[in-house]
């Protein structure tokens, strides 16, 4: 009898833990840090934006200084380490405010 009452409580507890664990993964990126991935472009002209596609297939739009942006437009497909300060929300993907970029060897994953 006690087990039948315990099962719904256990299911609710497991569900809450699972949801909390999944949400905390995205919060780590939202606070700032570093992301490795390939420079790409999202959207169609004239609304295309620079982005980075990480190894785990997450896509982040990059918001950076004009000089850095010009460099990255020419380096599409190259592997970079992007250091960012914070994120913003966009309709397509999270936006990273870029602080620094570092080109990496494609073998340095």
**Overall number of strands:** 5
Mean pLDDT, rounded to whole units?
A: 80
Helix content: 25-40%
Shape: elongated
Instruction: State the helix count.
Output: 2
The level 1 CATH classification of the largest domain is Mainly Beta
CATH A-level architecture of the largest domain: Beta Barrel
Look at the helices and sheets and give the structural class: alpha+beta
Provide the succession of SSEs.
Answer: HEEEHEE
Q: Give the spatial strand order of the biggest sheet.
A: 1-2-3-5-4
Produce the secondary structure layout.
Elements: H1 2-30, E1 33-42, E2 49-54, E3 59-63, H2 66-74, E4 79-88, E5 95-103
Characterise the protein shown here.
- The chain is α+β, with helices and mostly antiparallel strands and 109 residues long.
- The protein folds into two domains: 1-30; 31-103, Beta Barrel (OB fold (Dihydrolipoamide Acetyltransferase, E2P)), CATH 2.40.50.140.
- It contains two helices and five strands, in the order αβββαββ.
- The chain has helices at 2-30, 66-74; strands at 33-42, 49-54, 59-63, 79-88, 95-103.
- It starts with a helix and ends in a 6-residue tail after the last strand.
- The relative contact order is 0.17.
Which terms summarize this structure?
alpha+beta; 109 residues; Lipoprotein; 5-stranded mixed beta barrel; signal; 2 helices; OB fold (Dihydrolipoamide Acetyltransferase, E2P); 2 domains; 35% helix
